[in-house]
Amino acid sequence: MSEGTLHRLSAFAADGEGGNPAGVWIGAQLPDPATMQRIAAEVDYSETAFIAPQSGLERSVRYYSPQAEVPFCGHATIASGVLLGETDGDATFAFSTSVGTVSVQSSVHDGIREASLTSVAPRHAAVDERRLAAYLDALGWCHDDLDPTMAPVRAYAGAWHLVLATAHGERLASLDYPFEAVRSMMLADDLTTLQLVHRRSESVFLSRNAFPVGGVVEDPATGAAAAALGGYLRDVGLIEAPASIEIRQGQAMGRPSLIRVDIPPAGGIVVRGTAIRL
Predict the structure, then answer these.
(1) What is the DSSP string of 84-128?
(2) Do the strands 100-109 and 91-97 form a parallel or antiparallel pair, or are they unpaired?
(3) CA distance 71 to 173
(4) Please, what are the domains in the chain?
(5) Is residue 138 helix, strand or coil?
(6) Most buried in the list 64, 142, 143, 267, measured by CB within 10 Å?
(7) What is the pLDDT of residues 20-74, one digit of tens each?
(8) How confident is the model at residue 117 (pLDDT cuts 50, 70, 90)?
(9) Separation between Cα atoms, residue 255 and residue 166, nearest integer Å
């Protein structure tokens, strides 16, 4: 087994509280997959990032939930960027992930260290109507709950997410679904989360993310889904790029999170946030 050091941070913490806990393991070389899976299960956060080598601007990174490897994780990337910045100083790192190279910048703003990631190129795809009906039924939603200005889509920026926008903010007040049934559906559809959003204003979105494929009912901050949402908004003309939006997530869980998303006219989506030590 490769020797390494495990750190625990909470990414996207709003005002120094809340956020999404992530494990960050750093070692000379990556452990074997079985060892990474075991460590992630022991950490029991929604994701743990594994990084090697211990120094340099180019690093190999893999992400594991307690139950399976995931292709990309935004909040663990932000946590990793903040941690590397604390030890290595301001820098731009190249994370070699299973979905491609992700640029991660770590810097200090107003005395607070933050990290930003630039996602791989986003894309989106239509949702099969029968599958959409199955997900709505599982969530206890109906078509009238959906926002007619934001069509349901599969959106990608390193991992696939089903984006369901509601026109009614109160629809996000509860999140109750048959865990195993939805998990099986999502695995069959190659989905990482169900991203349930409400557009509160032109630049502010409220979000809740179901994450049963990772072994948890709900994720308090989902950077990969935020990047996917930004790409979707740009590519279908729901926002005029360049633009910036905020995604507020985790409030219903008592873990308020703030994800800032910068949407350039083309290319990868930039997701920014802070992280605090746990």
Answers:
(1) HHHHH-SEEEEEEETTEEEEEEEEEETTEEEEEEEPSPPEEEE--
(2) antiparallel
(3) 29
(4) 4-118 (3.10.310.10), 123-254 (3.10.310.10)
(5) helix
(6) 64
(7) 999 999 999 999 999 999 999 999 999 999 999 999 999 999 999 999 999 999 9
(8) very high
(9) 22
